Amino acid sequence: MKSSEEKTEQATPKQKREARDKGQVAKSEDFNTAMILLSGVLLTLFLGGAIIAQMKDTMGMLCRNLFYEDFNAETFTTLVMHISFKNMNVVLPLMGGFMIVGLIATTSQVGLVFSHKALIPDFKRLNPITGMKNLISRKSLVKTAMSLVKLSIMSGVAYVSIKKDLEPLLELISMRTEAIFSSASGLIFAITLKITIIMLILSFLDLLYQRWQHSKDLMMTKNEVKQEAKQSEGDPLIKSRIKAVQREMSNKRMMQEVPGADVVVTNPTHYSVALKYDASTMESPKVVAKGVDLIALKIREIATNNNIPIVEDRVLARVLYSTIELGGEVPPKLYQAVAKILSYVYQLRGVVAGR
Asked: For 58-122, where are the E strands, in sequence order?
């Protein structure tokens, strides 16, 4: 049997919310890296021609200006600024693309998360003993093993790709510079694309593992779940006491209505229901007090002290108690039975008044 202090319970919504507020979310950094690398490959593919053309233009501009007789510090500054602004047309789309892809990759995993608590330095992490424990922990060993597996797989893909294109690589020696650049860039692009696809697959598996590990880290003990329930819903003892006080106050208000009732219907000892009827303000008689056992006895006691008629009707008392809420009116199906009792009460009052 598991100990109550073992983390056997799934994290509650409050526990997950607090972890998210602290910046503790399940995400794969490899997925971000793979997406940025893939975007870099695709952007380079589409913007490669523009990048090469810009590099040629830049080199030509440098070569033309370096041999001017009036070349000085001011001319150099102007040249650097001019080259920088021209290259921005190529650099900015690349940087902007990387930022957008990185943002999309992160939000697709955990949504928008900003936690100021994650920015607060935790000096406990500087403890060398804690650092050594984390270094040789099971989580750290698993992470290291996964990194070695990823590195091995990607190295294997790169090795197979290079070995496959080894003969074309040897022929680069006899080619012109442009042909060498074109062939080498094509090979690099193919290898990078393969590695990126492998990284995407591995990062997806890593994301599943991170989510599983995150859920496991957030698991709670039974005692923690109970304590959280007490904090969110209130201590059961306090709630019970509050309900008892509320019942006591409700009963006190109810007992204050008994002296104004017209009749009390009893069972005869277990149930008591006090009825009141005012033809000028009510459509039908109203239940102003009801109770069982001790409360029923108290209702009858107050009725006796205030000369309220008490009528025994076992069936009607039970039906009134179980079907009508306190302050509710008698339904049409009980009109006849209640009218019979009220008629008796009014006749009794008339006899008493006649005496």
From this structure: none
Q: Position 104: which residue type? A: I
**Sign (positive/negative) of CA torsion 33, 38, 39, 43?**
positive
Cβ atoms within 10 Å, residue 317: 23
Cα-atom radius of gyration of the chain, to the nearest Å?
Answer: 43
- What per-residue string of b and e applies to 273-298 under the rule 16 or more CB within 10 Å gives b? bbbbbeeeeeebbbbbbbbbeebbeb
Strand order of the sheet with strand 263-266?
A: 286-292, 271-276, 263-266, 310-312
In the three-class reduction of DSSP (H, G, I as helix; E, B as strand; rest coil), residue 272 is classed as strand
Residue 302: which residues within 8 A CB-CB, separation 6 or more? 255, 258, 259, 308
Q: Does 241 reside within a domain?
A: no
Q: How many domains does the chain have?
A: 2
Q: What is the pTM of this model?
A: 0.46
pLDDT per residue over 17-46, tens digit each?
Answer: 777 777 777 778 788 888 888 887 777 777
Let me know if residue 347 belongs to a domain.
yes
Q: How far apart are CA 306 and CA 116, in angstroms?
A: 68
Q: What's the pLDDT tens digit per position in 79-126? A: 677 777 777 777 777 777 778 877 887 787 776 666 555 556 665 656
Which of 191, 215, 230 is where one domain is finished? 230
